Amino acid sequence: MSIQFKALPTEAVRALQRGGPDAYGHTPERRISDGDGVPCRHCMKNVAAGDGYLILAYRPFPELQPYAETGPIFLHADECERAEEVDALPEMLEGSDYIVRGYGRDDRIVYGSGAVTPTGDIAARAETLFERDDIAYIHVRSARNNCYQCRIERA
């Protein structure tokens, strides 16, 4: 089976980079990166030391519902190119492990699908989850803070 890691859509990111409201209706906060642990969810690379970035509330679900988690993410403050949809791990996933969790077509967590997964095993874990008919897509989230990293879909 083939999978694709998907970055945030460019149209939504550009609106945020231009000062548009986040999931809570607030203007994204601007900071300067120290080069450590600031992964952009659009280009899926870390924001380099000295570069500006945004902190904002993001909800990777189409509508509000009990499982529609909202949390902090980072984006480059200036425009960056969206990461290609490929089966290779994004550059920004450099931690030791992540939560890999499946969601159904109704955008709800599929119970029993979530697991803290070593980074090198993420693709294999996704392929295993996609063997299930009840998994529509997968989120990769921080194992320490539960922050949304990216989405995985069947290719």
UniProtKB/TrEMBL annotation:
- The highest taxon in the source lineage is Bacteria
Query: Which Pfam families does the UniProt entry name for this protein?
Result: DUF1203 (PF06718)
InterPro entries in the record: DUF1203
Taxonomic lineage of the native organism: Bacteria, Pseudomonadati, Pseudomonadota, Alphaproteobacteria, Hyphomicrobiales
Query: Under which name does UniProt file this protein?
Result: DUF1203 domain-containing protein
